[in-house]
Amino acid sequence: MPARGKANLPPLWACPKCGQRFVSPNMWHSCVRMSVQDHVRGRPKEVVDLYRRFARMVRDLGPGVKAVPVKTGIGFMVRVRFTGVALQKGGLRVSFWLKHRIDSPRFAKVELIPPRNFVHTFHVRRPEDLDDEVRGWLAEAYRVGVQEHLASKKAESR
Fold first, then answer.
1. pLDDT under 70: residue ranges of the chain
2. pLDDT number for residue 149
3. CA distance 87 to 4
4. Alpha carbons 93 and 108: distance in angstroms, whole number
5. Are 127 and 50 a contacting pair, CB within 8 Å?
6. How far is residue 150 from each of residues 1, 7, 9, 20, 153, measured CA to CA in Å?
């Protein structure tokens, strides 16, 4: 069953060297092949447990979520990458993509990527940090990941 919002969108481009998939050809990336195991190996159990809890939360958002390990962390995508995590000494650094800005004291950084893309970053240091508020943010980011905003624009233009 396809994820919501995918209908009538062009196919993803796959890098011929590494197989990573992107919405447009020749997008910059490193072609470094990594695994989730590469990122968790040697990390403290508490950090690995936080990662597993986060990954489960992301996969529970809807169908088609795929982990995409890269050199700097582990991204999660449906049609496009919508969230990612870097395992750090004291926990996780989590980022997610929305089409608008959210203000919260929990964010370490909110970056505007013009024209209307916002990458929100926060830290997870204990299991309680992965709460309903975070689940709500990630659910909205998942909808960006399936590109609902593009599918709805196509429907409006018909």
1. 1-7, 26-29, 149-158
2. 65
3. 30
4. 9
5. yes
6. 19, 10, 8, 21, 5
Transcribe the chain into DSSP letters.
Answer: -PPTT-TTPPPPEE-TTT--EESSTT---------HHHHHTT--HHHHHHHHHHHHHHHTTSTT-EEEEETTEEEEESSSEEEEEEEETTEEEEEEEESS----TTEEEEEEETTTEEEEEEEE-SGGGS-HHHHHHHHHHHHHHTTHHHHHHHHHH-
In the chain, what are the domain boundaries?
13-152
Query: Are the C-beta atoms of 63 and 50 separated by less than 8 Å?
Result: no
Residue 5: per-residue pLDDT: 44
> What is the CATH number that goes with domain 13-152?
3.90.1150
Give the CA distances from residue 62 to residues 3, 24, 36, 59, 134, in Å, rounded to whole numbers and listed in that order: 8, 24, 20, 6, 15
